[in-house]
Structures are given as C-alpha cells and as structure tokens.
Design brief:
Elements: E1 3-6, H1 9-20, H2 28-50, E2 63-68, E3 73-78, H3 85-93, H4 100-109, H5 113-123, E4 134-142, E5 149-154, E6 159-165, E7 171-178, H6 191-202, E8 209-218, E9 221-228, H7 245-256, E10 264-269, E11 278-283, E12 300-304, E13 307-313, E14 325-329, H8 339-344, H9 346-369, H10 371-391, H11 396-399, E15 406-407, H12 417-422, E16 431-436, H13 440-444, H14 449-455, E17 459-462, H15 465-474, E18 476-477, E19 480-484, H16 494-501, H17 503-513, E20 519-522, E21 531-535, H18 542-550, E22 560-564, H19 569-580, H20 585-601, H21 609-623
Parallel strand pairs: 2-8, 12-14, 16-17, 16-19, 20-22
Antiparallel strand pairs: 1-6, 2-3, 3-7, 4-5, 4-7, 5-6, 8-9, 10-11, 11-14, 12-13, 15-17, 18-19, 21-22
Bound molecules: adenosine-5'-diphosphate (ADP) and magnesium ion.
C-alpha cells in the first residue's frame, strides 16, 4: 500500500506557485530534468571509478527520452545513481535548502510572474518545474546498490504517495502526464519540439540523450530509429592538449556563425579564484560588419556544467572587449538565474575580471612576441581598443600598452608608447611629442616638424581622428607628458629676446591680420619654413577643432596664432620693409600671404581664395616690372 505524505509547508507553497502562477518559460522543465539525470550519471560514474564491476553490464551511461502519444506522457530516464526510499522523501518532499522561508516570502510578494521566475531561478527549484507541464509526476527509481525500487507520485497539490516497487534497471525514470491545456507551442509530444529543446539547452550534456525517432519514408510506412539528440562534446571541458586547432576553429565557426577562422583562441580554467569556471574565448580575425550597429550582440554565453543558461551575457566581458566571442561554464550558477540577478552577482564580476586579464595578457604577448600578427589584429580592432580607452579612461592603465602609433623614427612600423619612452632622448625632457595630420606624408611636411627632426626627437604621428582625443585624455604616459609639436617650443631663451626686439613689427602684422589671429609671435621650431599656424589654446588643436566642427559639437572656434621663423630670409625682409615704412602696403600684403600659406600647410581652408590668388599674381607682376 502506498504511503501518502504531506509535502513540507514551504514545498506546498512553492508547488502552488509553480502550478498556478507561471505560464511562460515552461520549456525549461526539460533542461532541469536532464540536468538532474546528468548529475545522477556523474555520481554513478564516480562510484564506478572505484569499482567498475558495479555497473553490472549496464555500462553505457545515458539518458533516454520517450514520447508516449497515446497516454500523453513524456518519460525521461537515466541509468544513474538512483535514490533510496529515504532519499526520495528527503529530495522530492522537502526543500532542504536554507533560506527557503525568506525565499517564499519574497516569492509571494512578487508582483509579477517575471519577478517570481527570477526568484525561482535564483533559488533553483529544479525538479518541481516538472509541475509546470505535468498534471501528474511519477518517479520510479532504484539506487544502484539496492534491490528494491521506489515509486513516488504526486499531482503537486499538497501530498505525494510513496511505495516500494519493482524496477529491473538501476537509475531514475520520471514520467510526466502532460497537462491537457498546454499551448500549441508547448507540444512536448512532438519529437521535433523535444529535439529543439535538447539542442538549445542540453546540447553539451556529456552523456548521450537518446530518443526513438519516427520518419515517414513512404506513405503509411514509418521508419523508427534511435537518435542521439545532443552533440555531447563540450569542447571547453576537454583538456587543451586533446584539442586540435582544427577542432577549436570548427567549433568557433559553427557556434558563432563566422566564415573565417578566429584570430586567436583563449581557453582556460580559472585557477586560484574563489569561483570555478572554464572559459573558451575567441578573438575573431575580422571585425564583424555589424559591430557598430544595434544588431551586434555583445557578451558571452553562460553554461553551468555543460547546460546552457543564456547567451549574450554582457556582464561577462568588459565593453571595450565586446568583439570577443565565446562562453563561460561555471557550476556556481543556477540554471534559471535571470539577467537581473546576474547583473548584481559578485561571481560574475570576478569572472569578468579574470577574463579581461586573460585577454589583455594574450594580446600583450602577441604584441611582444608576434608583432606581425598583432599588427593584423590592430588593423582590424585598433579603433575599437582606442574607443575603449576613450570610453573608460579609468581602464587606461590596462589599455594604453596595447596602443600602436606611427612615428617619425620608425620607418612605417608602428610603435608602442613603451617603445617611445624606452628610446627617448636625454635632452628631450619629460615630453612625448606628437603631430596631427590627415596622413603621414602631410605630417612629415609640416613646418613644425623641421626643428624637432633636427634635434632627433621622435614624434608620434596621429592620423586617426580619435587619436588626438585619446592623447589629451591620457595626458601622460609613465609620467611623460604628451606635447603637440605645434605648441612645443624647443627650450631657448634667445627667442624671448628676439621677440622683445621685434615687438613693433609683430604687432603691426597682427594689426593687418585683425581677428584672424589672436597673436603673432616668433618660434624656434621652424627651420626651412617662414611661418606656421597653431592653436592659441593648447587643449584644442586645429585638427581637433575641425573634427568637432564636422560633428557639430563645437560651439566656438579655436583661436589661431601665427608663428614666424626669425631665422628665415622672409623675416629679414619683413624687418627691412617695416624699418623703411611701418605702414607700407607691402607689409600688409605679405602678412596676408604668410598667414594664408601657413593655413594651407596645416591642411586648413583659407578664408578668401580669390584675394589670395590676386595677391600672388600681383606679386609676380611687380617683381618683373
Ligand atoms: P538540484 O538539482 O539543484 O539539487 P532539484 O530540485 O533539481 O535540485 O533536485 C532535487 C534533488 O533530487 C537532487 O539534488 C537529487 O538528489 C535528486 N534527484 C532529482 N532527479 C534525480 C535523478 N534523476 N536521479 C537521482 N537523483 C535525482
Ligand atoms: Mg536540478
């Protein structure tokens, strides 16, 4: 005679909620039951390690799913460890977990189904989720080392019955009498539906999940075969040594829908952390073309013991590395954990930190040991990395060593900031010089480059629009301040003296140029060129001004300064003219020409092209009269 027992009060409340309040996400019951079966098989395998003979002929550890259309039953069976009579009562009659009371209290207060599901996920109700789809659940189980089996049965309403029974094989069989009012898309008697769910949630369970498969080969003639529904190979749980590059690549392409092999595979087990996990990460070889669109899904997939929990979990990876694809498998997460709870979880941020560290290490080692490969990476992802630094300046320390720049001393090879600093000239002071321009060629022709090149100082060439913003943001590297060659006067007291001596001439030129410039002054950074234009404000270069203007983000214009080279022939001529006649028309015209050609060399537009052309024409005519 079966014994009828009451569920523990808390269990009753929980079951009540499961049956009466949750109408979505029912699909997950299968994942829960398969996951339990897999746990039971793990335990059996562990037992058999000590003594293989206990498998007693039944050696293939497996899970079987059976669809019984006639009786509207779905059956999930394993040949795992099984449960004894007392264990059944203990495991299926109570919720032994601590904190159950407060959990239930919260659950009852939950104002929506979604919140309730989140809570359930957090606590993991596992087995009881069967009652979301079944009006009656029957469990027949026999523990591996016992003669007698046990039958447990319940409709989830408050009591269950339990009795001894016969069962010829070891393990657990769960029989679900499906509810009559399931929706059309909850047809758990459809083999395709079951296959889909297994593939989605349980594909990497390491034991075969078998099911009889019916196929109509001719009219009225069906072929029945047995199918393994899961692919079983959780690549990430194998030892690295056992996996070929080919396997890694194939898995990547299949899983993340990429045509190309990945640039790099990072596969590691967390060591020395408070949380256990395995991560399998891929750096793609190409920036996904959707990367900058809303369609691009960031984040890694999350598994718990080979069971899929969710994809695109953004919290697993810092945003600036979101081009990385991959997954994390950690036994420390419950299967139904919701995004909301995940976001707050401490485990997650520990994992994220570890992953970030690992990716940065990998990139750094590429940079140091395989420069060619790193350049390939940089060409694809450099802008993303830069944007990353721009968006999280607090991450600066981590990211800055990954940056590459063109430079005046490195013949087309990009260099790192570290390399710059390593070979900085002794008399250069605490400055890292940089120059901004459209192309390397443009920059090399800048008048400001002349003297600095003479000194042999290295100059970083910033050709990407974002570069200058980055440099401003970083301010310095290893205590060396970034300095634009436009604002950099090379140390020289002479220039001050000369400036003083030519005061009147300079203010005359300024007078001619009116508001076009804020100041006219002398510089010693020019050698062959007579003049250059710089920004009056060190914080914003003329190039940056243009960028911001294009973005319509600049409410004002950067003021300009005209700088003259006192050692140039032209400067001598200007002085002569001024001495003869401070108000000469010639001086006015020359000021205009110098100013405009300096603008042109800086890559800027000149204010009045026609007037400029006319001035030059007149000049040629005059010279030949
Ligand atoms: P959890 O899996 O998180 O422990 P569940 O509610 O899913 O919680 O399962 C409760 C318990 O019931 C399990 O811990 C296990 O001891 C037992 N159990 C459930 N399914 C099986 C099974 N197929 N074989 C053996 N024991 C099982
Ligand atoms: Mg479970």
């Amino acid at each position: 005679m079966p014994e009828v027992k009451e569920f523990q009060t808390e269990t009753k409340q929980l079951l009540n909620l499961m049956i009466n309040s949750i109408y979505t996400h029912k699909d997950i019951f299968l994942r829960e039951l398969i996951s339990n079966a897999s746990d039971a098989l793990d335990k059996m395998r562990f037992e058999s390690l000590k003594d293989p003979s206990i498998l007693d002929g039944d050696t293939e550890l497996q899970i079987k799913i059976q669809i019984d259309k006639e009786n509207k039953r779905l059956i999930i069976e394993d040949n795992g460890i099984g449960m004894s009579y007392d264990e059944v009562i203990e495991n299926l009659g109570t919720i032994a977990k601590s904190g159950t009371q407060s959990f239930l209290k919260k659950l009852k207060e939950a104002e929506s189904e979604k919140v309730a599901l989140d809570l359930i996920g957090q606590f993991g109700v596992g087995f009881y989720s069967a009652f979301m789809v079944a009006k009656k659940v029957t469990v027949e189980t026999r523990k591996w080392n016992e003669e007698k089996a046990v039958r447990w049965e319940s409709d989830g309403s408050g009591t269950y019955s339990i009795e001894e029974c016969e069962k010829s094989t070891r393990g657990t069989k769960i029989i679900l009498d499906l509810k009559d009012d399931l929706e059309e898309d909850e047809n758990y008697l459809d083999q395709y539906k079951i296959q889909e769910l297994v593939k989605k949630y349980s594909n990497y369970i390491k034991y075969p999940i078998k099911m009889k498969w019916e196929e109509e080969i001719e009219e009225g003639k069906t072929k029945i075969s047995e199918r393994i529904l899961n692919s079983m190979i959780p690549l990430w749980n194998k030892n690295k040594e056992e996996i070929t590059q080919e396997e890694y690549n194939e898995f990547y392409k299949e899983t993340f829908y990429d045509w190309n092999d990945p640039f790099e595979v990072i596969h590691f087990k967390a060591e020395g952390t408070t949380i256990q996990f395995v991560a399998l990460l891929y750096i793609p070889s190409k920036l996904p073309f959707t990367f900058y669109s809303k369609e691009y899904k960031k984040g890694l997939s999350l598994y718990s013991k080979n069971v899929f929990i969710m994809e695109n979990c953004e919290e697993l990876i810092p945003d600036y590395l979101s081009f990385v694809k991959g997954l994390v498998d950690s036994p420390d997460f419950s299967l139904n954990i919701s995004r909301e709870i995940l976001q707050k979880s401490k485990q997650l941020s520990i994992i994220r930190k570890n992953i970030e560290k690992k990716i940065l290490e990998t990139l750094k080692s590429k940079l140091e040991n395989q420069r060619d490969k790193y350049i390939e990476f940089w060409n694809e992802f450099g802008r993303v990395i830069k944007a990353g630094l721009y968006q999280n300046i607090q991450e600066r320390e981590k990211i800055q060593d990954l940056l590459l720049f063109d430079s005046s001393l490195s013949d087309k090879e990009k260099i790192t900031l570290k390399e710059y600093v390593e070979r900085i000239k002794e008399d250069q002071g605490n400055y890292i010089y940089y120059a901004v321009g459209q192309t390397i060629e443009d920059i090399e022709k800048l008048p400001q480059m002349e003297a600095i090149r003479d000194k042999g100082y290295e100059v970083l060439y910033l050709t990407d629009e974002i570069d200058e913003f980055l440099i401003k943001l970083m301010h310095d590297y290893q205590g060396k301040e970034f300095k634009s060659i436009s604002s950099a006067d090379i140390k020289d007291e002479n220039i001050q003296k000369k400036q003083e001596e030519s005061k009147d001439l300079l203010s005359k030129i300024k007078e001619h140029l009116k508001d076009k410039v804020k100041e006219v002054r002398l510089t010693n950074k020019l050698k062959e060129s007579p003049a250059c234009i710089v920004s009056a404000n060190e914080a914003i270069s003329l190039k940056m001004e243009r960028t911001l203007k294009n973005l319509e983000q600049l409410p004002f214009e950067a003021e300009k300064v005209l700088e003259l080279n006192p050692n140039h022939e032209i400067f001598r001529i200007l002085q002569e003219i001024y001495q003869k006649d401070p108000d000469s028309q010639e001086l006015k015209d020359y000021s205009e020409i110098l100013y405009n050609q300096a603008l042109l060399r800086e890559g800027l537009d000149i204010d009045d092209k026609h007037q400029f052309a006319k001035l030059i024409t007149d000049l040629i005519v005059k010279a030949n009269k």
